[in-house]
Amino acid sequence: MAIDFTLAPEHEELRRKVRTFIQETVIPAADENASRDEYLRTIFGLREKAKAEGLWLPHMPKEWGGMGLGHVELAMVQAEAAKTRLGPWVLNCMAPDEGNMHTLLHWASDDQKERYLKPLLEGVQMSCFAMTEPEVAGSDPTLIQTKAVKDGDEWVINGHKWFISNARRANFAILIARTEDVPPGERGGNTAFLIDLPSDGWNDVREVETMHGSTGHSEIVITDLRVTDEQILGGRGNGHRLGQYRLGPARLAHCMRWISQAETALDMMVDRALNRYSHGSVLADKQGVQWLIADSAMELYQCKLMVLHAASKIDKGEDFRTEVSMAKHFVAQSLNRIVDRAVQVHGALGYSTDTPLAHMFQHARWARLADGADEIHQMRIAERTIDAYRSTGSTWAATGGLPL
């Protein structure tokens, strides 16, 4: 049988190495009360240590300075790194830069790789991906209204973007704009442009306040922004294909990090249940609390299997769209449920900010919207399940294509 859920010894050693680095080096160095300058010095210092440990760019090929890991291997690294919010930043595998690195590696010209990709890989620049707009559904890129119009040797771009993560820290943006006249709902109308920041015409209006504060999701108004053909990424009219190429693995990378947060919440839930005494026994002896723990353990088990299977399909070069959609939907919902149960077991303490759970819950709610709302993934999953049955008379292919 080819199915094997164990890691090769060298991969198990790598996982232990990442865990040790995160637990013994990164977490003790994190100080939430530090000033911004101190915080930045800490991050850059930790990044140098990550490079020295050979833990830099786990998602990039070795010839580009990375660790050369496949997606299954990356899952274990991301899950260990995300035990702390700083972890992915220290290893330089955080969103949105991680997805942008993949995109540039696949779509950029040699000159564009030199100018935009290399600084990201070296950790000296940051980026953003500007697609979502307030006037149209963010989950339907065919409706994008930002327009790029040809004017001689230049393009003139006008539009409105929001929830552009990392925009205020970015040195450049990958901007999706409409360049072609195609019928509403049709693909092929969008083009990706590389925009140096700051640029005349790129106006950062505000950081959108969210449930967890102002943390870098910007609203951008674009007015007569001029670019050249050399700033087109991936060819004219390929903006939709480029975006979908970027979002597939990026969705799964989110799931890898969310699994880490869900596991942390479950650990805290069990620890609280073992140490909180009430009505004649510890909470761990109460059937109602045991159900919360059991449901969370079963969901986390399912999350891990789904992510590993979807990652294996990416590594094999197979069609992974349905599996990634299923994982993204299920892991995001499970994260919300597991953190919520952990809050419940902690009682009023869990609702306070004396533990990380309150902030974890705020961030978890975002997971059900990021990179496609739950309902969009359900729609796509249903469409592919129906298509599978129409084609073969069976839904087997739409449920993982597993040997069962």
UniProtKB/TrEMBL annotation:
Residues 237-384 form the Acyl-CoA dehydrogenase/oxidase C-terminal domain. Residues 9-123 form the Acyl-CoA dehydrogenase/oxidase N-terminal domain. Its EC number is 1.3.8.7. Residues 128-222 form the Acyl-CoA oxidase/dehydrogenase middle domain. One of its GO terms (biological process) is fatty acid beta-oxidation using acyl-CoA dehydrogenase. Belongs to the acyl-CoA dehydrogenase family. This is Acyl-CoA dehydrogenase.
